[in-house]
């Protein structure tokens, strides 16, 4: 064996060892690709039924929305008819109701004016009676004040001039 054969043999052994070390990661990489392929297949298998169910759900929601639209259209139609009916009743019944209310107000005002005159006459009599009573009381108070002044002036001289002036300066009691 020559030196070239030995170098080739060493190169072949190193290449075999290197290939041995590289085979394991390549096998692992192949298994990873198999798992990715299987995951993609399962995702596709599960995604298609989910998409089918979502399409079915969207169709059902659209049917429900159509029903809701029909109901809201019917409600709007009913509301319009109710408004028109209310306007009709208002136009037919408002004029007679206003006439009845004005007639009732006039009759009530008339009765109140008759009753008010009787109450006013009685009230005037009560006011004049209370005024006369107040005049009598005022006159009596004036008379009592005059008597008090006369007593103070005719006070005995023993009390002196001081007593007479103090009695005259006292306010009259009412």
Global shape: rod-shaped
Total number of helices = 2
Stretches where pLDDT is under 50 for at least 5 consecutive residues are 157-168
Structural class assignment: mainly alpha
Find the count of extended strands (DSSP E, 2+ residues): 0
Q: Could you report the average pLDDT, rounded to the nearest whole number?
A: 76
Largest pleated sheet: none
Query: How many structural domains does the protein architecture include?
Result: 1
- Using only C-alpha atoms, the radius of gyration works out to 62 Å
Portion of residues in helices? over 70%
Secondary-structure element order, N to C: HH
Amino-to-carboxy terminus distance: 163 Å
Strand content: under 5%
Question: What is the structure about, briefly put?
Answer:
With 174 residues, this protein is mainly alpha-helical.
Describe the structure.
With 174 residues, the chain is mainly α. The protein has one domain (3-169). The chain has two helices and no strands.
List the SSEs and their pairings.
Blueprint: H1 3-153, H2 160-169
Based on the model shown, name its key terms.
single chain, 174 residues, mainly alpha, 2 helices
């Amino acid at each position: 064996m020559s030196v070239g054969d030995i170098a080739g043999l060493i190169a072949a052994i190193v290449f075999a060892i290197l290939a041995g070390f590289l085979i394991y990661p390549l096998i692992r990489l192949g298994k990873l690709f198999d798992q990715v392929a299987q995951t993609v297949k399962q995702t596709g298998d599960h995604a298609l039924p989910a998409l089918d169910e979502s399409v079915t759900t969207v169709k059902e929601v659209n049917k429900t929305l159509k029903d809701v639209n029909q109901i809201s259209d019917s409600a709007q139609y009913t509301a319009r008819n109710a408004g028109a009916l209310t306007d009709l009743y208002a136009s037919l019944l408002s004029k007679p109701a206003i006439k009845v209310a004005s007639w009732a107000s006039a009759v009530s005002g008339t009765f109140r004016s008759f009753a008010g005159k009787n109450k006013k006459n009685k009230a005037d009599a009560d006011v004049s009676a209370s005024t006369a009573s107040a005049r009598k009381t005022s006159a009596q108070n004036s008379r009592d004040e005059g008597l008090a002044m006369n007593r103070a002036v005719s006070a005995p001289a023993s009390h002196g001039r001081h007593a007479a002036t103090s009695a005259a300066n006292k306010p009259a009691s009412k």
